[in-house]
Amino acid sequence: MKRDERAVLFEREVLSPDACLLHFRSESLFRSFLPGQFTMVRLPETSGLLLRRPYSFCDVRAEHSSFSLLVKEVGEGTRALARLAIGTSVDCLGPLGSSFRPPPNDRTPLIVAGGVGIAPFLAFCRMLARRGQRAIVLLGGRTSADLYLRGEFLSLGMDVRSATEDGSFGHEGLVTDVLAEVLNGKTSFELYSCGPTPMLVRVARMARERGLPHQVSLERRMGCGMGCCLGCVVFVHSTNEYVRCCTEGPVYDADEVAWERDPYPL
Ligand SMILES: Cc1cc2nc3c(=O)[nH]c(=O)nc-3n(C[C@H](O)[C@H](O)[C@H](O)COP(=O)(O)OP(=O)(O)OC[C@H]3O[C@@H](n4cnc5c(N)ncnc54)[C@H](O)[C@@H]3O)c2cc1C
Ligand code: FES
Q: What lines the ligand 1 site, CB under 6 Å?
C-alpha cells in the first residue's frame, strides 16, 4: 500500500567518492516493500528542492526497523540527499511500482547490474537466499569503485562476477562480455537487469536471441511518481501504447519494451 512516511537518517556508509548507502529508520516502510519497488523522497524545505526524486529500495534491516537507499551524486537532488545530516527526517512516498518476480525453482536467476542499477538487487538477492536460490550476479562499472555492495552479495552466498571498463577489477570491458560467457554454458536462466540503457538493450537482445525470460527495471526521470504527470512513459508492445514507468513499471518483461520507440534515445 502507498503511504507517505517520515524516515530518519541514522547511518551513512561511504561506498565510493560519489556514492553512499543511507540507512533510514521508518515505522513500517521497511516491512512493506518488495524488491524492485521504489520510493519518492522529498527533502526538508530548507534544501530548496520542491520535487521528490525516485530511489530503489536497496536493502532492509528488520532488527533496526530500517531500509537503505544507495545514492550516487549526479545533480542537486542526489547531492543534497547524500549529504543530509544524520538525524534528519525526510518524507518517503511508497512503496511504488512493480517488483521483480523470483524465477521458478528450475531456473537460475542471472542478474546483470550496472552502476546505481545495482541498488534494487541486494533486497532481491536477500529474498532469493531466503528461498534457497543462488543467483549469478554480474556487476559492471567504469572502475572498481562503481562495483557497489559486492561484499554484501557474496555474503548472501551469491556467485558474483565483475567487469570494469578500465580493468581495475574483474574482466576488463563490459559486463555484457561476462554475460556472453555465462550464457555459453547452461540455458535454464531467468535474466534480470537494471542499469544504463545501452547495457539494458544489449542484455535484452542477448536474452531474446536465446529465448530466455528477462525482467528489466527502467530508471526513467520522474516528476510525480504517482501516474499523474506522464513524464516517465515507456512504449510497450502488448497494448501498443505508452505506459507509465512509475505505475506500470519500473519492472517490465524486456520483450514488452519497444526499445526502438524509446522517447529517451541512447
Ligand atoms: C525507479 C527509479 C529508481 C532509481 N533508483 C536510484 C537509486 O537507487 N540510486 C540512485 O542514485 N539513483 C536512482 N535513480 C535515479 C535518480 O532518481 C536520479 O539520479 C535523480 O533523480 C537525479 O536527481 P538530481 O536532482 O540529483 O539530478 P538532476 O539535477 O535532476 O540531473 C542530473 C543528471 O542526472 C540525470 N538524471 C536525472 N534523473 C535521472 C534518472 N532517473 N536516471 C538517470 N539519470 C538521471 C540527468 O539527465 C542529469 O544528467 C532511480 C530512478 C528511478 C526512476
Ligand atoms: S512520474 Fe508522473 S506519471 Fe510517472
A: 38, 53-56, 69-72, 74-78, 116, 119, 219-222, 250
